[in-house]
């Protein structure tokens, strides 16, 4: 028992290591697939060796750099390969921070952090975990957006798996080239809608890499359990096609059967190689594929779409916290969305689900509180014939209305939600208008990166005389207003997906259902403290993200058990402590 607890604390091998993985008859563990191999079935030969000397210094999982003690240097043939001093991990961390802070440019910080991840994984995660608020903008939005745009140029070492059309028919073998065989979470993109920056083809790889770093730092999943994947089906981005440093396939995007069959092969291979309980997070697909793929695989795989569902949960969590501040109800608000794509539709639907449960009304009825504008104007019934399926539910009876400013005038919303990737969409006039008929307008400018935000924090506060409850997808610096400092919140799915992933894993969930996102949203809202509310904040600080993720994980896992989707039996009695005990610690391990 003690040793089990020790393992769970992270002093020994992590409990998630003990996942049975693939088993063959009789329950024999066949983690690497060799026993199940037949003459026909190809396996990758691999060997686990004890690293020492230079090899140890070059292995980011085990390297401690100057953190190797003198005894460790003796035992592992490192004498003379390092300068003579020994630094504690804390001193190494301070050195890294000082170095990072000296770079004037955000992209330089990104590159330096990625290099640290390649060199000394534990130190990288220690820096990220201990300084999450400061580091998040570099490993994640907005800097990751710039990194993706320049990925070909800043490319140093490959990270994650690149699966292109060239790998058609061989994807299972490609998965077996990956050095880890115990994979629990995959974040996959095809690079077609990278943040609000459009089609970046294979360079979208920065997103799965960044999101999975957050799975570890924010959600406590061990790095080796995480696999970033980019599916390269070409790109329609002319600049990239003409760029001699572009690292992907130089062809137009595959569509139709060619596209679908590659994705299908990937999804089958993933299940075959890692089993039923590997979580696949779809990220930054363009909406014509995102909705389809989610519908197609959600009944056969453990999948979710972060842009549709993760974003929905983070917004609902913020809205619950916002109405707690205003003393109103979610169902009291009138919602107007600028943008009716993946993020917009996902958010609208979870709000409607919440209202339906809260007010005990039919979903149809609940949807009527929500109005959406797309690039062609207000969704309303005269457009039903030409709308995509996911928009039809919000095409209510109303006269036609050409654009967002006109819709604001006609509908008098109390909540504005922006998912257009269009800077300036929440203009001075619109913010003033909303502030004229609502005491505390809720303004969520969700588009990423910062350059695409519908408005800035300063604009939202200035044009509403400091009354707006504001949050944005990418972070904004604090704003001074009437002698007070307001630190804007970040409405980003990074609050949700790490806890969602951890919750699925600790429960051994086999499917993700919308109710799990509803629970995640409520758990997030619960983490907003009284002090946060008093300061007009609708999200808790990212500084507490590991605690937040543990609460989300426990809520998600509890729902998975309730829905009969959990396979880890018996159910841990205290899911919260169990979630916390499973979290990866970046502290160095002592070597013999
Ligand atoms: N903060 C967060 O956690 C998240 C933020 N996002 C951000 O949200 C943004 C959108 O993502 P996503 O929903 O996936 O993208 P989509 O492409 O699916 O949706 C964009 C929507 O904006 C609409 N639109 C474009 N121009 C206008 C306009 N002038 N007026 C009104 N509507 C307009 C589009 O209309 P039409 O349908 O007619 O083309 C479409 O409905 C991105 O910037 C992304 O980074 C996404 C996920 C999470
Ligand atoms: C945050 C995120 O997932 C996006 O902007 O796409
Ligand atoms: Mg995304």
From TrEMBL:
Residues 308-561 form the Malic enzyme NAD-binding domain. (S)-malate binds at residues 193, 448, 492. GO terms for biological process: malate metabolic process. One of its GO terms (cellular component) is chloroplast. Residues 117-298 form the Malic enzyme N-terminal domain. Residues 1-20 have a biased composition (Basic and acidic residues). It holds the Pfam family malic. PROSITE patterns: MALIC_ENZYMES (PS00331). Its cofactor is Mg(2+); Mn(2+). The active site is at residues 140, 211. GO terms for molecular function: malate dehydrogenase (decarboxylating) (NADP+) activity; metal ion binding; NAD binding. CDD domains: NAD_bind_1_malic_enz (cd05312). Divalent metal cations. Prefers magnesium or manganese. It comes from the Eukaryota. Keywords: Metal-binding, Oxidoreductase. Residues 1-22 are annotated as: Disordered. Gene3D superfamilies: Malic enzyme, N-terminal domain, NAD(P)-binding Rossmann-like Domain. A divalent metal cation binds at residues 283-284, 307. Belongs to the malic enzymes family. PANTHER family: MALIC ENZYME-RELATED, NADP-DEPENDENT MALIC ENZYME 3. This is Malic enzyme. It comes from Selaginella moellendorffii. The lineage of its organism: Eukaryota, Viridiplantae, Streptophyta, Embryophyta, Tracheophyta.
């Amino acid at each position: 028992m003690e040793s089990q607890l020790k393992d769970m604390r992270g002093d020994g091998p992590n409990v998630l290591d003990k996942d049975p993985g693939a088993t063959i008859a009789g329950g024999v563990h066949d983690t690497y697939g060799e026993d199940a191999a037949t003459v026909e079935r190809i396996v990758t030969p691999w060997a686990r060796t004890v690293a020492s000397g230079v090899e140890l210094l070059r292995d980011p999982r085990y390297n401690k750099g100057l953190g190797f003690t003198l005894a460790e240097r003796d035992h592992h043939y490192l004498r003379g390969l390092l300068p003579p001093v020994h630094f504690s991990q804390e001193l190494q961390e301070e050195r890294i921070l000082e170095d990072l802070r000296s770079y004037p440019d955000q992209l330089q910080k990104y590159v330096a952090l990625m290099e640290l991840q390649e060199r000394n994984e534990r130190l990288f995660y220690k820096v990220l975990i201990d300084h999450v608020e400061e580091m998040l903008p570099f490993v994640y939005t907005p800097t990751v957006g710039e990194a993706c745009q320049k990925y070909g140029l800043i490319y140093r070492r490959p990270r994650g798996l690149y699966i292109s059309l060239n790998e058609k028919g061989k994807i299972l073998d490609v998965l077996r080239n990956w050095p880890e065989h115990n994979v629990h979470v995959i974040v996959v993109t095809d690079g077609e809608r990278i943040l609000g920056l459009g089609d970046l083809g294979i360079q979208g790889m920065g997103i799965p890499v960044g999101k999975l770093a957050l799975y570890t730092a924010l959600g406590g999943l061990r790095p080796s359990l995480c696999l970033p994947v980019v599916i390269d089906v070409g790109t329609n981005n002319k600049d990239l096609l003409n760029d001699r440093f572009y690292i992907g396939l130089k062809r137009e995007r595959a569509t139709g059967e060619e596209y679908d069959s590659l994705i299908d092969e990937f999804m089958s291979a993933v299940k075959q190689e890692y089993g039923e309980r590997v979580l696949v997070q779809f990220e930054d697909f363009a909406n014509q594929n995102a909705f389809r793929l989610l519908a197609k695989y959600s009944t056969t795989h453990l999948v979710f779409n972060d842009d549709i569902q993760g974003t929905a949960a983070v917004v609902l969590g913020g809205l619950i916290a916002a109405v707690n501040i205003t003393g109103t109800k979610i169902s009291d608000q009138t919602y107007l969305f600028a943008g009716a794509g993946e993020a917009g539709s996902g958010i609208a639907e979870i709000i409607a689900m919440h209202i339906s449960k809260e007010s005990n009304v039919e979903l149809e009825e609940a949807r009527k509180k929500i109005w959406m504008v797309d690039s062609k104007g207000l969704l309303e019934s005269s457009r039903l014939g030409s709308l995509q399926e996911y928009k039809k539910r919000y095409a209510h009876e109303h006269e036609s209305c050409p654009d967002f400013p006109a819709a604001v005038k006609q509908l008098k919303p109390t909540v504005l939600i922006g998912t257009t990737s269009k800077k300036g969409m929440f203009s001075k006039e619109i913010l003033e208008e909303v502030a004229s008929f609502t005491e505390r307008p809720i303004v969520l400018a969700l588009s990423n990166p910062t350059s695409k935000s519908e408005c800035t924090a300063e604009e939202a506060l200035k044009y509403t005389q400091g009354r707006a409850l504001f949050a944005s997808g990418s972070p904004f610096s604090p704003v001074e207003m009437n002698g007070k400092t307001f630190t804007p919140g970040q409405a980003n799915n990074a609050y949700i997906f790490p806890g969602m992933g951890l919750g699925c894993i600790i429960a051994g969930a086999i499917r993700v259902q919308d109710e799990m996102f509803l629970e995640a949203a409520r758990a997030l809202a619960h983490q907003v403290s009284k002090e946060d509310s008093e300061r007009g904040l609708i999200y808790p600080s990212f500084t507490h993200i590991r605690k937040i993720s543990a609460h989300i994980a426990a809520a998600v896992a509890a729902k998975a058990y309730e829905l009969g989707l959990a396979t880890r039996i018996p159910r841990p009695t205290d899911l919260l402590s169990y979630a916390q005990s499973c979290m990866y610690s970046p502290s160095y391990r002592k070597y013999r």
